[in-house]
Write a structure and sequence with these properties.
Length: about 725
């Protein structure tokens, strides 16, 4: 959620706060240049009549002037020394700022100036003891550490006037946060950043009320300003002050020495600057208080809400008219630019994994966005907006940003952006990113509810478009999956006759070498080659051809006997496995084609052999007729003495991919068997335990419709067995 301090921030941005004097900026650059001489410093100061006059006044005062002649500017600089010159320039520049801010409010700044000067001279002393290389920077940071109080007074005089004179402590920060949703430390850092000073100066202002425990590893300038602030407002024996001193390598004795010298240094600086601090010690600093809030402008707020609702609803109608998802994305980003004043807007959508946002290739950044992505694990405003489902702002502040954020800012050519999440059912489906200026960002904050309403309309439209796309993709995926499954089934089933063909070719080769008859083997080879063709044709046609060949009749005993012989002759069965049959003493006519029955038996026998790697027995048995649900079946069973199947395998026995065997087509055999059994209107059952596994196949028996005693329709006589079978069915 955007912060509710938008009013104060906006007022700070539009308030007529003074710019940082250019001479101070140039002086800070001069201080970093060790080769710069007194002549260059004199030329620099001569460009600012006010500061030049101050330098001449101090140099010709009784403290420095010893003869009757007035000193020129360069002589004055040499007389008072470089360090004092830098101090005077910095102090005068900052107090020009202070005076410009305070004049409009007619505020007594004596206490404020004394505290700021105290922090400045103490910060410089601390910097010297710490051997911090930029003592002028420390002095400036001390002077500016409370400039946020002046900024808040200028931007919100009515709300802040009662607390401007309050004691500068943690309680003041808490009251500021409660009443203005912004502390003077934040306001000061914002102002320093606006002046484009070094980022550590802004940080030292921002963190000068932080606890000692949090700044142990912070930049030295931050620790210096915290200690200077505390030393100018705490008793010397305060444990917190002593702890802060240790962070800067200064013990209690050193702190007492710095504090004792500070008063004289402050008076000297005030005299040189012409600042009257008389009576500053008599000004009391009461505790901060919370003023009674003014009534909420309910009518205006309600009017704004209604207006936003109407605009969001109209936007939703325009989204619904989009003819394609790409057109919808274009409409959403274009509407966002118009309604919220974005300089630019782009859309990021959640990828299929749900772990990253990817750019939508629409708009002027089409090519760059197509390869742009933001991982949700990243720590940035876009990822945070998606993860937390809250509108998240970002503005360039000089601090190092993540590469993704830098890319977005560069792509849109802006210095700030706002990330608006789009969600459905509590789940992020995308993020709208708008690029704008920092000033626009703060002006946009009161319209957060409008952005949320707009995002809700866009989310609904995108979800509907995504659902339509998903349905189309699902249909295509289902068709593709059907063909993939068919291809796998073809590969699996063709492998069986090809293996038989391969083994029979080996047998054929041996017989030819011995000049033995091979007509039987050639017949089997022809049959298996034909079976390969039937399998391929039936599977590729998604099984209609196979189903059409399922009809007809066959002798199950003969088919089972042929399959067993194939396994024995082609060495499918190792010496450790014995196959026995019980076929001849039972009826054998079934209403199913021989090829499909053979395909079923080959799969089941192959599985049984593989289930007994250490050997065992396989029994193929014709168990005779069985009535199931008013229909007559012939039961054929295949039993092995392997170790049985685990319960989790049994639970999904006929589902593809459940086998524990290795290979590209593992787990397909039983699913294919079940499919083939269903094609012939049969049933398949399985029982398995530690003593082995038994598959029972119920094969339909042909039952002709009788037309009199022993005569079928059409005047043809029925076999006695068929008549008996028909009578049996009638009696059931």
């Amino acid at each position: 959620m955007l912060q509710t301090d938008s009013d104060i921030r906006s007022r700070l941005l539009v308030a007529r706060l003074p710019a940082m004097p250019q001479i101070l900026l140039k002086l800070l650059e001069h201080c970093q240049n060790d080769d710069a001489g007194m002549g260059e410093l004199a030329s620099l100061i001569a460009k600012d009549p006010g500061i030049a006059s101050k330098i001449l006044s101090v140099a010709n005062s009784s403290a420095y002037h010893r003869n009757g002649q007035k000193a020129g500017l360069e002589q004055s600089l040499a007389s008072i020394g470089t360090d004092m010159v830098k101090t005077l320039v910095i102090s005068e520049s900052v107090f020009q700022i202070f005076n410009n801010i305070s004049q409009a409010n007619n505020t007594d700044l004596r206490g404020f100036w004394k505290h700021s000067l105290s922090a400045a001279v103490i910060a410089r002393e601390i910097a010297v003891r710490m051997k911090y290389p930029h003592v002028e920077e420390a002095y400036l940071a001390g002077l500016l550490h409370d400039v946020g109080r002046l900024a808040l007074l200028a931007a919100a005089p009515k709300e802040y006037a009662t607390n401007f004179m309050a004691a500068d402590d943690a309680n003041l920060c808490a009251v500021e946060q409660r009443t203005l949703q912004m502390t003077h430390a934040e306001a000061g850092a914002m102002l320093v950043e606006r002046w484009h000073l070094d980022s550590f100066l802004a940080d030292s202002v921002l963190y000068h009320h932080e606890s000692v425990a949090r700044v142990g590893s912070a930049h030295p300038l931050i620790r210096i300003v915290i200690l200077a602030h505390m030393l100018s407002s705490h008793e010397i024996d305060d444990p917190v002050l002593l702890e802060a001193g240790l962070l800067c390598g200064i013990d209690a004795e050193g702190l007492a020495d710095i504090g004792g010298r500070a008063a004289d240094l402050v008076r000297q600086a005030a005299d040189y600057l012409g600042i009257d601090l008389a009576g500053a010690d008599d000004i009391t600093s009461p505790p901060a208080t919370v003023a009674t809030p003014s009534p909420d402008p309910t009518r205006d707020r309600l009017s704004e809400e209604v207006r936003n609702l109407v605009l969001a609803t109209n936007a939703g109608r325009s989204f619904a008219r989009s003819q394609s998802e790409a057109e919808l994305l274009e409409t959403v980003t274009r509407s966002a630019r118009i309604l919220f004043g974005f300089d630019d807007a782009i859309m990021l959508q959640m990828d299929a994994t749900g772990h990253a946002l990817v750019g939508c290739a629409v708009g002027p950044h089409r090519q760059r966005l197509s390869e742009f992505s933001v991982p949700l694990s990243a720590d940035g405003p876009v990822a945070n907006a998606a993860n937390q489902l809250r509108v998240t702002p970002l503005r360039r502040t000089g601090k190092l940003l993540g590469v993704g954020e830098e890319q977005l800012l560069r792509m849109m050519g802006t210095n700030a952006l706002v990330s608006v999440p789009l969600s459905q059912g509590g789940r992020c489906i995308g993020v709208l990113v708008g690029g704008l200026s920092p000033e626009q960002l703060f002006e946009l904050q009161p319209r957060e509810r409008f952005m949320q309403a707009f995002a809700a309309q866009a989310s609904t439209a995108l979800a509907a478009a995504g659902a339509e796309r998903s349905d189309s993709n699902l249909q295509l995926a289902n068709v593709a999956e059907d063909y993939r499954q068919a291809s796998r089934r073809v590969a699996h089933e063709v492998n069986n006759p090809l293996s038989i063909i391969k083994n029979y070719l080996s047998i054929l080769d041996s017989k030819l070498q011995r000049q033995e008859p091979v007509s039987g083997e050639l017949s089997i080879l022809n049959e298996e080659i034909d079976r390969v063709g039937q399998i391929v044709h039936g599977m590729v046609e998604m099984e209609p051809a196979a189903r059409s060949s399922a009809g007809g009749g066959s002798d199950v005993n003969r088919v089972a006997g042929e399959v067993v012989r194939l396994f024995r002759d082609t060495e499918f069965v190792p010496a450790s496995v014995r196959i026995v049959t019980r076929l001849d003493d039972q009826p054998s006519e079934i209403a199913a084609g021989a090829d499909l029955v053979k395909q079923i038996l080959v799969n089941l026998l192959k599985n049984a052999v593989e289930a007994m790697p250490r050997g065992g027995e396989i029994e193929v048995a014709n168990n005779g007729h069985l009535n199931r649900d008013g229909r007559l079946y012939l039961e054929l069973s295949i039993r092995d003495t392997g170790g049985g199947m685990a319960p989790e395998i049994m639970t999904n026995l006929f589902a593809p991919g459940r086998s524990t065997k290795d290979g590209a087509h593992r787990g397909l055999g039983l699913s294919i068997v079940q499919s083939l059994v269903r094609q012939i209107d049969g049933m398949i059952l399985c029982r398995s335990n530690k003593q082995g596994t038994t598959f029972e196949i119920l094969l339909p028996v042909p039952v002709p419709v009788p037309s009199g005693d022993g005569v079928a329709a059409g005047g043809k006589s029925l076999p006695r067995s068929a008549v008996a079978q028909s009578q049996m069915m009638d009696s059931l």
